[in-house]
Amino acid sequence: MLIQSMPRIRPYELMVVLDPDLAPEQQDQIVERIKTVITSNGGQIQEMIPWGRRRFCYPIRRRMEGQYVLMRAEMPAHAVAPLERALRITEEILRYLLVRLDEE
Question: Domain 9-100's class?
Answer without folding.
Answer: alpha beta
